[in-house]
Task: structure prediction
Amino acid sequence: MTQSYTTLMDRFLHALFLQSGYRERSAEILNEGIAIIALGSYGRRELCLGSDVDLLVIHQSQLSPEMNEIISRVLYSLWDAKLEVGHGVKTLQECIRAGMSDFRSLTSLMDMRLLMGSRPFFRLFEEAFWSKVDREKGSLLSRFLIYQGKRAEKYGNQGYFAEPDIKEGLGGLRNIHFMAWMARVYFKITDLRQIKRFPAFSHFPLERLHRSESFLLKVRNRLHYLAGGRREDRLLIPFQIQISRSLGYEDTPSYTGPERFMRNLYLHLNRIRYGSEEFQTRALDLIDPRPLEPLPNRLPADFQVLKGNIVLREGNLLKARDPLLLLRAFEQANRQGLFLGSGLIWEAGHLISGRGKEILSHPEAHGLFVSILMSPMNPKLLRLALEIGLVGLFIPEFKKIRNLAQFSHYHIETVDLHSLKTVEIVHQIARGAYDGRWPGLSEIFRELQHPEWLYLAGLLHDIGKGSKGDHSRKGADLIPRILRRLGMKGRVAKDLSFLVQHHLLLVNISQRRDLNDEKTSVQAAQVISNVETLNLLQLLTVADSLATGPVAGSDWKIMLLNELYLKVRHILERGILASPDATKRVEQNKGNLLRLLSRRFAPKEILQLMEQVSTWYFLSTRLDDMAEHFLLALTLQKRRFSWTLQKLNNAPVTRVLLCTYDRPGLFSKMVGVFTLNNMDVLSGNIFTLKNGLALDIYEVTNPLDPFREREMWSKVYSDAMEAIEDRLPLDELIERKERADLFPDRVYSPFPDRMRIDNEASDFFTIIEIIGAARAGLLYDLAKEIFSQGLDIRFARINRDKEKTAGVFYVRDAGGQKVSGSAEMERIKQGILSVIG
Result:
């Protein structure tokens, strides 16, 4: 279709130029040297429906007024046709200077094609341009590599995984262009298919890459059509749904149509991405050949080292030798911190596809493979093992998660690559790479009795996503069979199954429960049962979160994980799974608080205030927070509102310790104020005293502008004062904010709205869990609804991202008891669903 559209555009342009007087100026065009050139995608004959029509008029001498008029008429006609037109009028010398000084101009010129004008002059320009490129090709190499690095940095983030850029993203069409440009500059070929004439590329899978290119062009054209004929290369989630339907991807019992489409898309993106990396490696071997390097100690005689890669000695053909040679090459590369050469990679791929069963039948094979998995000194080798089919050969279950896209904004990789990324992060934790941000992770790793099990858990923790249903339980069921096939016996199967089944346990508890409620930690300790398992689970959880992406692995969420880990470990190390006497703990906390405050206040004042405070406050609040609250309360006097701000060092979060006189709906009003000022409420602890004071703790995201934080907090304080006194129209202001805050990419969420009421997880509170839309005012509306139901919110934890709002609320009824009675629960459920639905 792209070639047909390009041909149609050629005819249209010819007609426009002829209609504008081109034929009458033919003598000037031939004699003075004028050429009209197509550039970029138009020059490559890859014009999609919304692509820019890039034109360049090059000339030898000054253009006549009549020729300038012709060009202007054509451009105006193209604009009238609603086409996006890139255009320029330059001399031959100006074009070459522009190409050498600007990389985008350079690559655009590399795809030039004559449309109309003087062919001899165009050939003269071509010769001058490519002669200049050839002279500068040494310095151009670094520009090529810098360009690729910048692309990887920009498009390798979380947002571009969930909604990839078909043209510029990793594995997109630009990777194909990059190969063609390098081939043209360094191998002097005009068609990328000619690269196979070079022995190093004789087996390069170019045909498969071109099939993937055709698929991406088809998707890009559909994108442009759905976007109303304009250029849109970002495959947003709503477009994914529409394109999957238009291409005939139906729902199956295992996957939805959009999931099947995205899996196929990532097959093509990953094929192009890693194919272009292989191309670059082979090309650099030829462009910049280096001598063989000294052999590392004890490297087998079959191998030698070239540019940091293990290669076969000249004349050795892997497929004609011992099939274990492949695994030994991997083992040596892993042990020596090397990689495999491109020729060896190609031979290995053919060996696996042709003699895979022979490899599996060899007694030593499984041991060599497991040694690579359980001690990955170079995690990049695991990705190579995946790409050439080695992982799938030994673990066939892995084939079900190959190129499997995860239909959400959380993940930045497909399931298979996410699993490898988790292993890589475990390796980084072991080396202390994260100790600067979260001290202690490498120390936990050093405590492990079986650190190799952690690598295996990282690789297999999402193996169950290849089947429908609870992937944690499905994956745990697969582990014994996988380990038996790998020849691993004993306790490892039981422990690894536990880690896979419960790899989300710590995440769910830390983000959905009150960590100050000791029952939360006790219940986690009862499931985990020993410190060794806790250490494995903590490191697996951290690695999984960081590999998932910046949303799941934010500083705030890792901080919550660490807090839960320390509390559960404390319980396990004490050797008891029950809380000590609550009365004793309350008295200890009161005594510590009295001693801390007696330096500033009379003991009588402190004790009088203590009498107003609930037992739960002394059981669930840190000593330093209690001291700050009491300081605020004892100095409040005639003020109506007082707070202390504590900005955290290890997360973009501020803790707001608040003291005021309680008012109906205080929590919802504070939530509304924070929302108006673009601060997300992450958690809230609410305590009401017998004398009417409220001692609250809110954890909120920092103000958006770090240079105006003091100004913003001053505004929040002023807004809070007005809201508490009902002088701020919160409903109207938040509704107005939501209308201004609705972006197209927030319309669709793969998470259905739902809510659940839990009366078992806490001894003192009913827990309400919700998942709803990602709109800014949802928490405010929920808080109002819960208050209108006669419920008192005592703790809340909220997580709002691009897709959804997830929240948990600890509530009691007006009598201070848990919610009971099916009719009352149903009424609450329907009220909340009316808000989130």
Notes: The CA atoms of residues 19 and 304 lie 67 Å apart. The first strand starts at residue 34 and ends at 38. The longest helix spans residues 257-287.
